[in-house]
Amino acid sequence: MTDSDATPEHALDLDRFTPAETALYRWSPLGFWGTTLAVFVVSFGSFALIAETFGRPHLGYINAAGTWQLNTVSWIGFVLSMILTTGVALTQIGRRRWETERAALLAAIDPEGSAAANALCDGTPLSWRRYYWLLTGFGFIGGLIFNFVMTNAEGVTPLEYIQSIGLWFLLFSPWLYAVGMRAGLSLAREGREMRKLIDRHVVIDLYDLERLDIFGRIGLSAAGSWLVMAGVLLLFVADPRQAWIAIPGIGLAVLGGAVALTNAVRPIQRKVHAAKAAELAEVHRHMAAARQRAFEGDDLAATALAGLTDYEVWVERRPEWPISTSVTLRFSLYILIPTLPILGSYLFETFADRIIYGGAF
């Protein structure tokens, strides 16, 4: 047997690397929100620069009412810039979540799992690096294919394409596809690592289930990330007249967020359920031993049986899901995230129409 064969599987996960998205935030002096804003400014700012430089098309136009309006292509560029920004930020959001919850996470696991829990804050397992590179390559290829399709659809030559706003799509869509795929991979990888940590290192103490609320908060954060990305994607159909398209999308977004939350807390629920079943089996064993003596008039056995009955009820009532009231409330608020693009567009159009036609609120 080689040394690598003798190495536990989870030990390999302790070797980490820093994804480019996380490295960007570590190197940036602007902080999380400043760096996130800078990514958007670079992305959409370059779109505006190219649009105004080539004018094919310009960023916006003067509509029939005499007001300046963003054209459809520019709106697509805006949404794609939002998607790129969100994808870059999601990996850093995950790392910040582990840093914030590190102490609570360590308190919920056994000492042997502390190294694995700390590793979550240190980057991505080396064993996943090839998947990140692979999806980056697929993303770039997907972005180039997108530009090829656009060139054919517009009926222009490659030279004409890069002398228009097509230049921006050529430069940014490969990165957009790559970042989006990597963000999805990060969410899947974090969920898998968390399940492994729970299965191997979480110790269930029925007297102290509150310390497991950390996993509800982690699940809530994962659900929030899903719903934020879904909300950004729904900007494509932010026109209130397209609500019939958006409503199914909102439903799927809420379902996805619920699945993300459930996937994070379901392993804990199974472990708590198993611990309760084992405890109840032991209680029933003691109850069976005391019952006959109690029926025969043994006062001590009768007292013990009454106490065991109370304890049985207490165990049965112990909550299995690590979801506190605050997590439930916050998830209910997160559900509103996918509706914001539609609501915001409706309010904006209502405001703009009343301004244009001299109305008042």
Any low-confidence stretches, pLDDT <50, length ≥5?
A: 1-12, 355-361
Shape: elongated
Trace the largest sheet across and list its strands: 1-4
Roughly how many Å is the radius of gyration? 27 Å
Largest sheet: 2 strands, antiparallel
Task: Give the total of beta strands.
Answer: 4
- DSSP summary: helix tally: 14
Q: Structural class of the secondary structure composition? A: mainly alpha
The mean pLDDT is: 80
As a percent range, the share of helical residues equals: over 70%
- The succession of helices and strands, N to C, reads HHEHHEEHHEHHHHHHHH
Oligomer: single chain
Percent of sequence in beta strands: under 5%
First-to-last CA distance: 78 Å
Provide a short characterization of the protein structure.
The chain is mainly alpha-helical. The protein has helices spanning 3-6, 9-12, 20-27, 31-54, 72-107, 114-119, 129-154, 158-162, 166-201, 213-233, 243-295, 299-317, 325-334, 340-356; strands at 16-17, 60-62, 68-70, 124-125.
